[in-house]
User: What shape does this take?
Amino acid sequence: MHTDTIVIIVAILGVGLGLWRAIATIRQDVTTLRHEVRADISGLRQEMAEIRQDVRSLHSRIDNLYQALFSHKDPAA
Assistant: This one.
């Protein structure tokens, strides 16, 4: 074989190995980010549930105040 052919083959193998390692690193990064995003989404869902409960509680308190203010009958009537 000619030395030029060997150099070309080694260069192709080097580039292939470099790309393979880069792809593996990117895949690992994507997997890590996916897990982080899922954890964040889970936390946000829990916070949303707590906010909904707080809104329900506030709505109930407002409704009770409304009922207390406007459900009394006029004693003169």
Observations:
- The two ends are 115 Å apart (CA to CA).
- The chain is about 90% helix and 0% strand.
- The chain has a mean pLDDT of 92.
